[in-house]
């Protein structure tokens, strides 16, 4: 029935569609032309950062009261998705800026937000999230990095690894143990700045994909930060870290959807052009069925990502199941769709002359970071069985 608002439930509003058109146009013009070189040279996509910042797309999630765009969670996913459609590495700029500040936004003091968030909104700084350690990956609560109160300050010692955009970010949300005997409830979250004494970047990973986004190891050697840089109450840091992931796993789903869409678009164009046995290969039913399956799975993944983002935006509780499900499903779909795209290109797909092999390599990390898809299944099943 026309005009019944219920029928708009599964439709994005005009504002979201306009946003998509704007970020798609920017991505195609300013980001796509550099994506191949960024990957081949394993260099940071500075052109993407400049273009995103000039248009206010670098950290769209920052609330208006801190000088940001105040984009809702679905809008933020659309921005990440559209950038990922042309360059996975560049999509980590808006994604990791959200990851690196979500704990602060959820549980930090107004004063601390005022110190950090306007810098992101203005494009003066980026932020990263530092939870993992060499020996504490999936079992994040077994971290060893320590923080001790010393007068009005906190002193951090230890190291963090797998830090996306590490070395490029000025701010880091760092989880550290403040009361070792309390395990998860003895962990606190802090905002650490790259210029804080005792902070350093000690190395970078050499990776299969997302080669334009540095993945760094960080060291804290008697790293001193002011007392007011703790996020929320001491001891609440692990909950802040997991709550953050409830809000950001949908953004990894969005990145996965974007990568899959980029690969599907490329595969459609290629299979229409490519001729074998005297006709376009898109006329073969075997190819048509592959394209149909790719698009069908992608459609389901996108809907799940937007649903999870919308539920986070509405402030619903118990987001664990849906945010893990969206991230897990979308990233598995992205791996399948990008691999099928390489297959549809045949030998050409295996070369760097076409973007699909890069998209396949970039898709792989979406099944691993922000929690492996095995951890997502743990989170989902715990929610079902509790
Ligand atoms: N939001 C807030 N609090 C949460 C929560 C959530 N989504 N999920 C769990 N908690 C709380 C629990 O209630 C518990 O608190 P209480 O002891 O007061 O009840 C505390 O946090 C610890 O939870 P739990 O016992 O479930 O922790 P585990 O050590 O079993 O770890 C997993 C849970 C495995 C889910 C967690 O370690 C995880 O997500 N690991 C993957 C980490 C990850 O994603 N790494 C990638 C980093 S970003 S690249």
TrEMBL record:
Keyword Oxidoreductase among UniProt keywords: yes
Keyword flag Cell inner membrane: no
Acyl-CoA dehydrogenase/oxidase N-terminal domain location, by residue?
Answer: 14-124
Q: Which Pfam families match?
A: Acyl-CoA_dh_1, Acyl-CoA_dh_M, Acyl-CoA_dh_N
- InterPro entries on file: Acyl-CoA_DH_CS, Acyl-CoA_Oxase/DH_mid-dom, Acyl-CoA_Oxase/DH_mid-dom_sf, AcylCo_DH-like_C, AcylCo_DH/oxidase_C, AcylCoA_DH/ox_N, AcylCoA_DH/ox_N_sf, AcylCoA_DH/oxidase_NM_dom_sf
The Acyl-CoA oxidase/dehydrogenase middle domain covers: 129-223
Q: Which residues form the Acyl-CoA dehydrogenase/oxidase C-terminal domain?
A: 235-385
Name any cofactors this protein relies on. Answer: FAD
Keywords, comma-separated and alphabetical: FAD, Flavoprotein, Oxidoreductase
Which family is it part of?
Answer: Belongs to the acyl-CoA dehydrogenase family.
Q: Which PANTHER family match?
A: ACYL-COA DEHYDROGENASE, ISOVALERYL-COA DEHYDROGENASE, MITOCHONDRIAL-RELATED
Protein name in the entry: Acyl-CoA dehydrogenase
Which species does the entry assign this protein to? Answer: Tomitella cavernea
């Amino acid at each position: 029935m026309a005009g019944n608002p219920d029928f708009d439930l599964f439709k994005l509003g005009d504002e979201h569609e306009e946003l998509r058109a704007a970020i798609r146009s920017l991505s195609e013009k300013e980001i796509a032309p550099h994506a191949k070189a960024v990957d081949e040279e394993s260099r940071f996509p500075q052109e993407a950062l400049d273009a995103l910042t000039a248009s206010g797309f670098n950290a769209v999630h920052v609330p208006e009261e801190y000088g940001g765009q105040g984009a809702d969670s679905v809008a933020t996913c659309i921005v990440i998705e559209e950038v990922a459609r042309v360059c996975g590495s560049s999509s980590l700029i808006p994604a990791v800026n959200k990851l690196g500040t979500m704990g602060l936004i959820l549980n930090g003091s107004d004063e601390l937000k005022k110190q950090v968030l306007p810098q992101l909104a203005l494009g003066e700084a980026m932020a990263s999230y530092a939870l993992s350690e060499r020996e504490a990956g999936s079992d994040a609560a077994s971290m060893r990095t320590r923080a001790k109160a010393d007068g009005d300050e906190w002193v951090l010692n230890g190291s963090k690894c797998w830090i996306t955009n590490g070395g490029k970010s000025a701010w880091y949300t760092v989880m550290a143990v403040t009361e070792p005997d309390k395990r998860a409830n003895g962990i606190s979250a802090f905002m650490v700045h790259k210029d804080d004494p005792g902070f350093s970047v000690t190395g970078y990973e050499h990776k299969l994909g997302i080669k334009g986004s540095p993945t760094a190891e960080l060291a804290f050697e008697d790293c001193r930060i002011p007392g007011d840089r703790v996020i929320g109450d001491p001891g609440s840091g692990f909950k802040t870290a997991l709550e953050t992931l409830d809000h950001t796993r949908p953004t990894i789903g969005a990145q996965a959807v974007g990568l899959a869409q980029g690969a599907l678009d490329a595969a459609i164009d290629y299979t229409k052009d490519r001729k074998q046995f005297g006709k376009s290969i898109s006329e073969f039913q075997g190819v048509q069925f592959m394209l149909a399956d790719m698009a069908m799975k992608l459609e389901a993944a996108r809907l799940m990502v937007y649903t999870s983002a919308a539920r986070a935006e509405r402030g619903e509780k118990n987001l664990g199941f849906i945010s893990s499900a969206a991230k897990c499903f979308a990233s598995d779909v992205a791996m399948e769709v990008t691999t099928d795209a390489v297959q549809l290109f045949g030998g050409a797909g295996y070369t760097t002359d076409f973007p699909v092999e890069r998209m396949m390599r970039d898709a792989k990390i979406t099944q691993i970071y922000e929690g492996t898809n095995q951890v997502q299944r743990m989170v989902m099943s715990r929610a079902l069985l509790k």
